UniProtKB/TrEMBL annotation, chain A:
One of its GO terms (molecular function) is anaerobic carbon-monoxide dehydrogenase activity. Residues 19-136 form the Aldehyde oxidase/xanthine dehydrogenase a/b hammerhead domain. Its EC number is 1.2.7.4. InterPro entries: Ald_Oxase/Xan_DH_a/b (IPR000674), Ald_Oxase/Xan_DH_a/b_sf (IPR036856), Ald_Oxase/xanthine_DH-like (IPR016208), AldOxase/xan_DH_MoCoBD1 (IPR008274), AldOxase/xan_DH_MoCoBD2 (IPR046867), AldOxase/xan_DH_Mopterin-bd_sf (IPR037165). It is an enzyme of class 1 (oxidoreductase). This is Carbon-monoxide dehydrogenase large subunit. It holds the Pfam family MoCoBD_1. Keywords: Molybdenum, Oxidoreductase. The lineage of its organism: Bacteria, Pseudomonadati, Pseudomonadota, Alphaproteobacteria, Hyphomicrobiales.
UniProtKB/TrEMBL annotation, chain B:
It comes from the Bacteria. InterPro entries: 2Fe-2S-bd, 2Fe-2S-bd_dom_sf, 2Fe-2S_ferredoxin-like_sf, 2Fe-2S_ferredoxin-type, 2Fe2S_fd_BS, Beta-grasp_dom_sf, Diverse_Oxidoreductases. Keywords: 2Fe-2S, Iron, Iron-sulfur, Metal-binding, Oxidoreductase. Residues 4-80 form the 2Fe-2S ferredoxin-type domain. It holds the Pfam family Fer2_2. This is Aerobic-type carbon monoxide dehydrogenase small subunit (CoxS/CutS family).
TrEMBL record, chain C:
It is an enzyme of class 1 (oxidoreductase). Keywords: FAD, Flavoprotein, Oxidoreductase. Its EC number is 1.2.7.4. SUPFAM superfamilies: CO dehydrogenase flavoprotein C-terminal domain-like, FAD-binding/transporter-associated domain-like. Gene3D superfamilies: 3.30.465.10, CO dehydrogenase flavoprotein, C-terminal domain (3.30.390.50), Uridine Diphospho-n-acetylenolpyruvylglucosamine Reductase, domain 2 (3.30.43.10). Residues 1-177 form the FAD-binding PCMH-type domain. GO terms for molecular function: anaerobic carbon-monoxide dehydrogenase activity. It comes from Aquamicrobium ahrensii. This is Carbon-monoxide dehydrogenase medium subunit. Pfam families: CO_deh_flav_C, FAD_binding_5.
Amino acid sequence: MNRLIGKSVPRLEDPALLVGKGRYVDDIHLSDMLHCTFVRSTMAHAAITGFDAEFARSMPGVHAVLTASDLAPMLMSKRMPLSAAPSKEENSSTPFVLQDREVSYVGEPVALVIADSRAEAEDAASAVQVEYEPLPVVVDARKAYEPGAEVVRSELKSNLLNKLHVGYGEVDEAFAAAAHVFADDIWQHRGCGHSIETRGVVVESRFGGSELCIWSSTQMPHDLFYMLVAMLDMDENRLRVITPDVGGGFGPKYCIYPEEIAIPAAARLLNRNLKWIEDRREYFMAAVQERDQYWTLEIAVDADARILGLRGRLVHDQGAYAPKAVNLPYNSATAMTGPYIVPAYGMDVLIVHTNKVPVSSVRGAGYPQAAFAMERMMDLIAVRMDLDRAEVRRRNLIPPEKMPYVKQLKARSGVAMIYDSGDYIASQAETLAAAGWEDFPARQKAALAEGRYIGIGLANAVKGTGRGPFESGTVRVSQNGKISVFTGATAMGQGLATALAQICAEELSVTPEDVTVIAGDTAVTPLGLGGFASRQLVTAGSSVHLAAKSVAAKAIKAASRLMEVDEDALKLEEGRVWIRDGNRSLGLGELAQVLRGAPGFAFPADLEPGLSTSIQWKTDALTYANACHIAEVEVDIDLGEVTVARYVAFHDSGRLINPMIVEGQVVGGIAHGIGNALFEFMGYDETAQPVTTTFQEYLLVTATELPNFETIYRETPSGLNPIGAKGIGEAGTIPAAAAVVSAVENALSPFRIRISQTPILPERLFNLIQAARATT
Amino acid sequence: MRTHLIEMKVNGKACSGEAVARTTLADFLRHTLHLTGTHVGCEHGVCGACTVLVDGVSTRGCLMLAVQANGARVETVEGLASAEGVLHPLQQAFRDQHGLQCGFCTPGMLITLKELLAENPDPTEDEVRDAISGNICRCTGYQSIVAAALQAAKELRRSGSAP
Amino acid sequence: MKPPPFEYFCPTGLNEAVELLAAHENSKVLAGGQSLMAMLNLRYLFPDVLVDINRIDELAGIAVASGAARIGAMTRQRVIETNGEIARVAPIFREALKLVGHRQTRNRGTIGGSLCHLDPAAELATLALLHDAVVEIAGRDGGRRRLGIHDFIAGFMMPNIEMHEIVVAIEVPLWSAGHGYAFHEFARRHGDFAIASAACLLEKDGGGAISRISIALGGVGSVPQRLSAAEEFLLGKRGEPGNLASALEFCAGLELIGDFHGSAEYRLSVVRSMLRKSLELALARAGRRDT
């Protein structure tokens, strides 16, 4: 049928957002609401030796200055649990709700100030006297994991949070048999999420603090709900977490933060409605970042440039705490081989604490680093063996006949990693053709004759999407015919509501406008996982698809009983069940009215009450999307300035539900990746003081720095879910930095420069060019 | 602290409220007048989410005190659509071209582009990019916003109406 | 973050404003506010009193007379950028102003505010230096003083102005019709403070030789700087490639500062590149003039 699937249906979210009627967390105004701010550590590592808030408490408008001990009676633990499923296990890696003894990064929350206005709260916060006794600071992860190194927190014996080995095959043999071995050290830095809306929490306290309603700008309302149940020891029926409109997530809102526990705890303690809206400087110092990974790599190839083995070491800067089970370096290490056949692989992963802001996901979550490292090695092979970079990749790409391709690695859930579908060779070929890869050398030569340095680069990527274990989807028809979809998936601006409404409306033969999607409200959706890992369309979409199908079947069945005709003689059209050869019909609303039952009236035999179905579609497997990006750049060698002149992106994310939304995800993701390659850098000085804490210092890419992106789509349906979809939220970002840097290196090929880092900021590039000029 | 009585015409309507001097125009609109369509993204004048028109020219709402706008004519995103709820051509174009995702930067983008189209009814793509270079969007990669601006410009030229 | 508390005054007369500043020890002038407000929001500054000079009408306006343009201190950057008279007599202003921040900040930001903030990369301060502008300053009891821009620029972000004084206007001496001009800068993104900028004005004689030249460079040191040695060197020359290359060498004598956004060596390379572009463009734009 496909009236709606595959159509660029205008978004249901837009009308409200366009006229200023969105409802973001800071738009929520409660009566008698007080405003919060945090006193945060100004030192990267120090013992707290004194705390004096007496004067601050006396300041105008101030209601309270709360410390860890003030909140302790409200909390089951002073420390955040490792996951929302609390365990009795001691952990020494998660943050504290408030820190009262030893701070270990600049920005760590030490006290909570509550006042009539945010401004007054800030006045008081700056008047709180905290005495710090400096302790040794750990800045560089590479120097921090060795025994004897100073520790990030005194409670640690070592900064090495974890050490893993990821690999398979006979690695040493592969290297021994190799025609060539190429090695490189790669450093990469990803920066921060920087949704334009920061984080924020509003808490309504009812009945003396015995009931709380919490609005949080989070990707994980259910996680927060479970965490609050555990931390505040509250009955589930006394607690509700709602995500209002969210002004972007990009990963950092995946964590549950100390602030999201401290504000509700304080609301209970004071029995007051509270609001905390993070400011941008706080975001720089308290929202998780993805930061540095240092890779030491060797790749073994045969005489035809076919990969025999890949090995190395990955040092991952984890920052001061691990707010969640650490997944990024594991993602990086397991994603490293990407779309290529790597017969033997071994990676030692060291996860190391430093006195910097804690690290967790930013769009791509370890995959961009893996793609960057792998694609840099592919270019290295090509340059050293004097082969075309695309040809080296082609020889090593997993061919379509090997699909499904079982990687000899396991996902974090323990299941095997299986690339389910996709034609990587055709994908690359199509991208090369679109980008004019073959003709480029001639254009490059002509430009060089004019003194212009232009270059082209490519990168492939594979992304495991649709992470389970499940996502909830309930479809319910009310007696007035209105259809509601409830899901634990969380809308952060992607257009989730529109896509789910399309899927639902397709099955119920209504328009998307007939469907209301309620995402991320724990009071109406008992189960939910949330927004992360390019998962929501795959998981929630599948649940909603199945639930809507079931509701359609229920409607047909009920109509069959009520109209006394065979089910086969009925069809669902325009929200009504019709007799095929007649003009009698029953509306979905009428059927819902019957199925809701009425006291004293018989219920139709063999029908289930309620015109609604809840499905928790489960999956262990990831479905793998693939991408190929080609960037064209020009480099000004006097400035080290890179201009992205053209960009072609190929994506296969399975069946596209709403191509317009997919396009938005892809091009927005590329912009983020270009930012990672050329602009974004979160700097710390040698005392681990952050030095980029405003948007004037930390540069987000703007409209004048980007070209128009050209996109190509191929739809290889996923066989792993009922809608054939694969995720798209992160796929645009993953290969982008690798493609851009490949192009920059290509532009500078006259200087024979090797670029082993991202971001490649102008001055760094300038220095590389200068060094090369000095030796040539 | 002394409060100031602040009166301004917002989207054609006389509004007033009391605020201490340090209240920014953006906060006054949002929290005193409860016009929450104008957003605050950085409070240091870079992101552009708080852009409003003050006496006809685009202004960072976080870099102006509310008291400075006393007596001024202020236009915000809430004033763009018609009283009957018909979307402004810019708003319609943003919807058609998928010029917004999370919607947080959108009010500032719309207001900035309204000013551009008022003085340059037929901008080039580069002129649109230049105009919105002070507005950061983390979602769209800007290209759909540029497309929306060009569509709206065309529509406004066709209909002959003022932006 | 929200600004710290302060008292706010909004005088309509210049004398009243000066008296308010004089009467309050920890007071600050609020001009366009495009730097000051951000610094207040970030709580980098804690003034007790703000004196808003936006409603002092006499401070805004542009008057072009023969030989000089007088630009009121509170003239918005956008107004200067779009002013037809300025575009005619000093077209470099429009070229440079397009690079100052963004439309929204230029709508409120003022020339006087920019000069008093005195960021080393500020385009308007660099232009003032390029033109040997004169700054007119109001003091107590109706007092006025005029200060050459070289004296006005006292040091890093430090104008030579008393706490109670207010800049009234900037007088920009004009160059002859048909003079060559160019302003180039390199910023990480459009509208950012420049890593380095180079501004150039020049006039040619009937034979095509450079008869008058001014070069000012921004962003490289603690303050905008004139490259007088290069100016002297280029006088009488025609801008031959070899001479231009030699002129760039004088950049080595600049005061250079390195910071997070660029080391001294890097800024030097950038400023040379900008200067080369500006010299070439200014030479190409300059009409010959019979003397």
